[in-house]
């Protein structure tokens, strides 16, 4: 009853306060303007993640008893810290080092004070328990990477919300099945808040979650995934659905942000760019260039996320020696297939656009206009190419 009540309360509260939040964000000019690497064409209020985080915290304090709140006190404190960091970053851009320092403090609260950490490799390479220093280091690294990886996929209407709802829903069911009631309530309450937010964030979005939302979602998901991995590593077979490949199961839950981050970093490094240099090489950007809409990309990547989770459930009896290579290989092959199909669609659209231009935008009148310099033997082909390129560029921008 508590878990369902907390879910419904978070959903209702977020649904009620988000329109109010949108109104005040517009009044305060907390707006994400189009331009640069951004793919939206209108001014959209940002910092909307404040709605589902407040709804989640409010619902937890309403439905959880004292012992459950005590169990999650450090996690909720760290989540509140990430909320304030996100708000500050949305209002006044923080430097990368300032954000990292804040994330390290929040991670310290969860890993050291709440003792939510990866305690071993659970039999992988014959390692069951890690020394405390290595355990802390690996846990810190995991939280920071997942938090920022999730922040990177928040570049498309509904994408971050869709991926997180799928993961939180699965985690709530699993935690409940193994008797981790407090973590089950936390997971499903987050599901309720984010699901309600998606009503306003689905394409065409009325509000963006901003760093306020994406940092909190990534941090919460990283914390819950680490607890999921460690719980699986110490579960007995009789205690519920045990994944004999706990690390692989954790990877499956966050396969979209992990794959996207690894792909982007590799492409940038292979092109001689800094891995941290921003661009439009993310998976969702690439799929949109292939002709898919915002909602189609979000649904496609959501379906892929569900498929990887389903695969980890079906392979729950296999070890990490089998499941980790299987998941990595499948992700690489699927990514390669998506890239090749998308490239074919991009080339096809370019040819179709060029054909339409040839019929509807004759080049000769443009070349003969008074604004064009007198013809020479070499200037005419160059101007023709330049004019075609300019029109193509404008059409691509209007498509986005």
UniProtKB/TrEMBL annotation:
First-listed, main subcellular location of the protein, grouped into a coarse class: membrane
GO CC annotation terms, alphabetical: plasma membrane
Annotated GO MF terms: metal ion binding; phosphotransferase activity, for other substituted phosphate groups
TM regions (residue ranges): 6-25, 46-64, 70-88, 100-124, 130-151, 182-200, 212-229, 241-259, 297-315, 321-338
Location in the cell: Cell membrane
Binding positions (Mg(2+)): 151, 211
InterPro entries: Glycosyl_transferase_4, PNAcMuramoyl-5peptid_Trfase_CS
A single BP term in Gene Ontology: cell wall organization
Cofactor(s) in the UniProt record: Mg(2+)
Keywords carried by this UniProt record: Cell membrane, Magnesium, Membrane, Metal-binding, Transferase, Transmembrane, Transmembrane helix
Topology in membrane: Multi-pass membrane protein
Pfam families (UniProt xref): Glycos_transf_4
Record protein name field: UDP-N-acetylmuramyl pentapeptide phosphotransferase/UDP-N-acetylglucosamine-1-phosphate transferase
Organism whose genome encodes this protein: Mongoliibacter ruber
């Amino acid at each position: 009853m508590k878990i369902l009540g907390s879910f419904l309360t978070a959903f209702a509260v977020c649904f009620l306060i988000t329109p109010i939040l949108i109104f005040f964000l517009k009044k305060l000019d907390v707006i994400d303007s189009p331009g640069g690497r951004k793919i939206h064409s209108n001014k959209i209020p940002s910092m909307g993640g404040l709605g589902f985080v407040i709804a989640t915290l409010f619902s937890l304090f309403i439905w959880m008893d004292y012992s459950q709140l005590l169990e999650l006190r450090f996690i909720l404190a760290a989540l509140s810290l990430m909320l304030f960091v996100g708000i500050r970053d949305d209002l006044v851009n923080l430097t990368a080092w300032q954000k990292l320092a804040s994330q390290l403090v929040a991670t310290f609260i969860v890993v050291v004070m709440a003792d939510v950490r990866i305690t071993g490799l659970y039999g992988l390479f014959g390692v069951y328990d890690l020394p405390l220093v290595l355990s802390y280091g690996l846990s810190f690294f995991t939280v920071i990477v997942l938090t920022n990886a999730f922040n990177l996929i928040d570049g498309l209407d509904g994408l971050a919300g869709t991926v997180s709802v799928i993961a939180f829903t699965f985690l709530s069911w699993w935690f409940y099945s193994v008797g981790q009631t407090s973590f089950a309530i936390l997971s499903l309450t987050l599901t309720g808040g984010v699901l309600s937010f998606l009503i306003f964030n689905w394409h065409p979005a009325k509000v963006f979650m901003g760093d306020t939302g994406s940092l909190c979602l990534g941090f919460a998901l990283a914390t819950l995934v680490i607890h999921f991995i460690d719980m699986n590593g110490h579960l007995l077979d009789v205690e519920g659905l045990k994944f004999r490949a706990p690390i692989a199961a954790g990877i499956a839950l966050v396969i979209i942000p992990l794959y996207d981050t690894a792909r982007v970093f590799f492409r940038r490094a292979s092109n001689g760019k800094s891995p941290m240099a921003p661009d439009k090489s993310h998976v969702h950007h690439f799929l949109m260039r292939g002709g898919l809409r915002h909602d189609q990309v979000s649904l496609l990547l959501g379906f892929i996320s569900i498929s990887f989770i389903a695969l980890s459930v079906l392979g729950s009896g296999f070890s990490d020696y089998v499941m980790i290579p299987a998941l990595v290989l499948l992700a690489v092959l699927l990514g390669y297939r998506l890239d090749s199909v998308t490239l074919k669609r991009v080339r096809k659209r370019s040819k179709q656009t060029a054909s339409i231009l040839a019929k509807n935008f004759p080049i000769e009148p443009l070349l003969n206009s008074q604004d064009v310099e007198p013809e020479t033997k070499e200037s005419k082909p160059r101007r023709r190419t330049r004019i075609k390129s300019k029109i193509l560029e404008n059409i691509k921008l209007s498509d986005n």
